[in-house]
């Protein structure tokens, strides 16, 4: 403007008045205007445009002049289109070709959207009212959303193209807003946009995958029906084995007789193992099927991501939004499939573990028959060790500040208070029939309590949802059924039991992406295989997870085992480690060894009553002496635990 | 053609029409060849000569005085012409030129205005052939007259 100081803007404005009057109205209004008025407007536009060209309003910059000429042309086209539409014999129609006349006729249909609020438009579209739905789908299907294409059309006058872009660009923007609001409010189901073939294609594929996965799960459930009672069969076999084990321990049965019973159970055992294997294969194949489906979705995601980026580059926000909407639905389905796969994986994990349970139990019985030392743990001792574990861990976790290193984040957390913790147990396993005195049963038996303390952080430090960062868990692991049935247990915790106890912790830590520290304590000690495995790196990488650090505790001897390369656990081991008052243990040991000078064996209950020392101290002293090779523990009916002298 | 055809026996020659310069030296040879290839009966030869009519364009003129500002009067006349579907062809400071098509034919209208003592002197000329100029002129004239009377 600065270059043309003589421009009389008032004059320009006045000259454009009839143009603005025409452009202020839509085609429908012009169609209903009488011919005289239309002619008058046309004549005024022509006269004024001549005036402007002749410089009556001073000089105009080139781009302003171009813009004005486009506006004038568009106003004239609008009048001509009105005449054309009502089939008037009017020479003004002859100034434009059919392409131009038809384009305006089409584009003007969408002016409707401009005059109502977004909410009103969205409502009408969704309810299929007043033809709005058809109109908006038409808009996309006929490609009016892409006004750029008119630049390629040779049969449209240049200044007209510019003006069309200006006038309908606004409507286009409005329609974009309406489309986005529709998608936000009602999702994509209302749109039938052929331009988004890939989205439609993906919707279809998604539907297929969803139905397919559902069918697969349904089929799997039907097939798993065959294995409905496998758990009961497993339990019944284990119960039979426990019976033999307990009888053997109490010398109620001879080795030969026990062997005979064991032989008779062999077939049942191998049938059960076979069935577990079949179940594993079935779960495996379904898991693979679901995994394949997930991969198919990944392909679709890649395709749509490319599409989305293209729309983003072209600033086609509503198309981008449509693709994003579809992508989020795929992500949802993918999550759903992932959950199904996880559930199958967990099932498979348990099947694999359970398959070995009977064998492990059998091995233990064979060990007993071969005369291997087993530990005798009474119901009340097991209960005491469980309570000790919980009290010890809770006390240590409240000895603030507690410092825990999170290897996932490579960050040391200093904890000054615990916001959340919970405990759960398996007490229902100790109830025996309807006549159980629940309170008494719970007071007498260990309950396999799990105690979990959580470190959580708000997503954005001060606000946002809480996210788990770390969990510290103490697990008391006992053979509850044996305590409930026989009042004692002699079986060490096996690899299967160890893995089973960890399975839920591993799964939730991996899904929740947090670090989980677990200590599992068994009063009957641990099978050598578990100790051996937990120390081997190969086992840790294969069965455990980087999200989980684990240690096992022998509650009676106080021994703890963990993988020495596990940095997270090294710092935390003190939380789980049982502490015995050394002086007291030493005093009891001295007392027992003194007694050995007079007797060949010492009864636990006598020492306990005579010394008035705590049971765990006496136990520790007994097992320490055994470990040092100076004695051997044994269970004798009616006497309980004794320590025999070993010379 | 429909209107005058019967009355004036208007018609056009059958077949293919060819115009040849009589002075051309080959014209006899050409006709001879034409006869031999078709037949003498099928070929008709006429002599053409230039004929022009002195038909004068009709022009109706109206000069009138209207009260009001130049702008108002221009607007008023513009309205009257729009009522006749007259479309503007050009516009200058001295006047405007319109074109109007009617069933009776086309006409050209020119207008000019001059302001004088709160009045505007309006000049309107309607030009064309046939009945159209008179017809349009009368309509315009009547409108102005009606306005003046009111």
Describe the protein's architecture and organization.
The complex is a heterodimer of chains A (647) and B (150). Chain A is of the alpha+beta class and 647 residues long. Chain A has four domains: 9-186, no CATH class; 198-374; 377-579, no CATH class; 582-645, Winged helix-like DNA-binding domain superfamily/Winged helix DNA-binding domain (Arc Repressor Mutant, subunit A, Orthogonal Bundle), CATH 1.10.10.10. Chain A has 23 helices and 13 strands. In chain A, the strands form four sheets. Chain A has a six-stranded mixed sheet with strand order 4-5-6-8-9-10, sandwiched between helices. Chain A has a three-stranded antiparallel sheet with strand order 11-13-12. Chain A has a two-stranded antiparallel sheet with strand order 1-7. In chain A, β9 and β10 (560-562) form a beta hairpin. Chain A starts with 8 loop residues before the first helix and ends with a strand. The model of chain A has no long low-confidence stretch (mean pLDDT 82). Chain B is an alpha+beta fold and 150 residues long. Chain B folds into two domains: 2-42, no CATH class; 58-149, TATA-Binding Protein (2-Layer Sandwich), CATH 3.30.310.80. Chain B has four helices and five strands. Chain B has helices at 2-8, 27-37, 70-83, 132-149, and strands at residues 58-67, 87-91, 96-102, 105-116, 119-128. In chain B, a hairpin with a 4-residue loop joins β2 and β3 (96-102). The radius of gyration of chain B is 26 Å and the shape is elongated. The chains are: A alpha+beta (647), B alpha+beta (150). The interface between A and B is medium-sized, with 17 and 17 residues.
How far apart lie the N and C ends of chain B? 43 Å
- What portion of residues of chain B belong to β-strands? 25-35%
Q: Could you name the ranges of chain A where pLDDT drops below 50 across 5 or more consecutive residues?
A: none
Largest sheet, spatial ordering of strands of chain A: 4-5-6-8-9-10
Widest β-sheet, arrangement of strands of chain B:
1-5-4-3-2
What is the approximate shape of chain A? Answer: elongated
Task: Return the average pLDDT of chain A rounded to an integer.
Answer: 82
- Approximately how much helix is present in the residues of chain B? 25-40%
Distance between the termini of chain A: 115 Å
Could you say which structural class the secondary elements and strand pairing of chain B correspond to? alpha+beta
Radius of gyration of chain A: 41 Å
Number of domains of chain A: 4
Approximate helicity band of chain A: 55-70%
Main sheet record of chain A: 6 strands, mixed
Shape of chain B: elongated
Oligomer category: heterodimer
Strand content bin of chain A? 5-15%
CATH homologous superfamily heading of the largest domain in chain B:
Kinase associated domain 1, KA1
Average pLDDT over all residues of chain B: 88
């Amino acid at each position: 403007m600065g270059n043309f100081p003589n421009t009389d803007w008032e004059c320009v404005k006045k000259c454009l008045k009839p143009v603005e009057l025409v452009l202020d109205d839509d085609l429908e209004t012009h169609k209903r205007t009488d011919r005289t008025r239309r002619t008058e407007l046309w004549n005024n536009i022509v006269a004024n445009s001549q005036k402007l060209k002749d410089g009556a309003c001073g000089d105009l910059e080139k781009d302003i002049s171009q813009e004005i000429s486009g506006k004038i042309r568009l106003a004239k086209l609008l009048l001509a289109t009105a005449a054309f539409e009502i089939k008037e014999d009017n020479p003004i129609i002859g100034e434009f070709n059919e392409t131009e006349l038809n384009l305006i006729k089409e584009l003007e249909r969408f002016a409707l959207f401009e005059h109502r609020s977004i909410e009103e438009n969205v409502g009408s579209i969704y309810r299929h009212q007043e033809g709005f739905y058809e109109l908006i789908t038409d808009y996309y299907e006929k490609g009016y959303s892409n006004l750029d294409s008119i630049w390629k059309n040779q049969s449209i006058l240049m200044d007209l193209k510019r003006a069309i872009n200006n006038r309908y660009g606004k409507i286009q923007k409005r329609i974009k807003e309406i489309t986005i609001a529709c998608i936000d409010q009602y999702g994509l189901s209302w749109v039938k946009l052929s331009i988004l073939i890939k989205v439609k294609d993906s919707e279809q594929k998604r539907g297929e995958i969803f139905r397919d996965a559902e069918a697969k799960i349904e089929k799997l459930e039907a097939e798993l029906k065959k294995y409905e009672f496998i758990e009961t069969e497993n339990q019944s076999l284990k119960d039979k084995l426990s019976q033999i084990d307990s009888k053997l321990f109490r010398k109620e049965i001879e080795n030969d007789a026990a062997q005979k019973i064991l032989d008779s159970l062999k077939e049942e055992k191998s049938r059960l193992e076979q069935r577990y294997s079949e179940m594993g294969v079935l779960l495996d194949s379904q898991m693979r099927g679901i995994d394949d489906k997930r991969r198919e979705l990944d392909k679709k995601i890649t395709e749509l991501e490319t599409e989305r980026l293209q729309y983003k580059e072209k600033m086609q926000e509503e198309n981008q939004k449509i693709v994003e909407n579809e992508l989020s639905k795929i992500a949802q389905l993918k999550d759903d499939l992932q959950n199904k796969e996880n559930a199958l994986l967990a099932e498979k994990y348990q099947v694999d573990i359970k398959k070995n349970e009977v064998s492990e139990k059998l091995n233990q019985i064979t060990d007993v028959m071969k005369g291997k030392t087993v530990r005798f743990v009474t119901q009340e001792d097991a209960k005491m060790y469980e309570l000790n574990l919980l009290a010890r861990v809770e006390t240590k976790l409240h000895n603030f500040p507690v410092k825990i290193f999170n290897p996932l984040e490579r960050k040391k957390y200093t904890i000054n208070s615990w916001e959340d913790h919970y405990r759960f147990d398996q007490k229902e396993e100790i109830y025996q029939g309807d006549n159980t005195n629940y309170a008494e049963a719970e007071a007498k038996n260990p309950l396999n309590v799990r105690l979990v303390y959580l470190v959580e952080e708000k997503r954005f430090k001060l606000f946002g949802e809480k996210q788990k960062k770390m969990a510290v868990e103490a697990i008391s692991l006992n053979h509850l059924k044996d305590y409930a049935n026989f009042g004692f247990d002699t079986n060490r915790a096996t690899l299967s039991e160890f893995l089973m106890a960890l399975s839920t912790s591993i799964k939730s830590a991996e899904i929740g992406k947090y670090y989980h520290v677990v200590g599992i304590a068994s009063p009957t000690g641990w099978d050598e295989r578990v100790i051996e495995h937990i120390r081997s790196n190969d086992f840790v990488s294969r069965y455990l997870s980087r999200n989980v650090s684990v240690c096992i505790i022998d509650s009676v001897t106080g021994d703890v085992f963990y993988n020495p390369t596990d940095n997270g656990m090294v710092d935390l081991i003190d939380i789980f480690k049982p502490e015995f008052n050394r002086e007291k243990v030493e005093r009891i040991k001295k007392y027992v060894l003194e007694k050995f000078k007079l007797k060949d064996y010492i009864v636990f209950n006598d020492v306990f009553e005579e010394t008035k020392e705590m049971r765990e101290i006496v136990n520790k002293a007994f097992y320490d002496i055994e470990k040092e090779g100076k004695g051997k523990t044994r269970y004798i009916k009616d006497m309980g635990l004794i320590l025999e002298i070993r010379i | 053609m429909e209107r005058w055809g019967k009355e004036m026996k208007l018609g056009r020659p059958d077949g293919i029409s060819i115009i040849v310069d009589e002075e051309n030296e080959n014209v006899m040879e050409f006709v001879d060849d034409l006869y031999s290839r078709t037949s003498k009966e099928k070929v008709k030869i006429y002599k053409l000569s230039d004929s022009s009519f002195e038909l004068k364009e009709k022009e109706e003129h109206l000069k009138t005085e209207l009260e009001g500002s130049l702008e108002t009067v221009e607007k008023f006349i513009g309205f009257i012409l729009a009522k006749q579907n007259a479309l503007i062809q050009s516009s200058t400071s001295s006047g405007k030129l319109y074109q109007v098509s009617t069933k009776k034919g086309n006409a050209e209208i020119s207008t000019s205005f001059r302001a004088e003592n709160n009045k505007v002197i309006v000049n309107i000329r309607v030009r064309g052939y046939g009945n159209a100029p008179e017809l349009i002129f009368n309509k315009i004239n009547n409108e102005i007259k009606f306005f003046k009377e009111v």
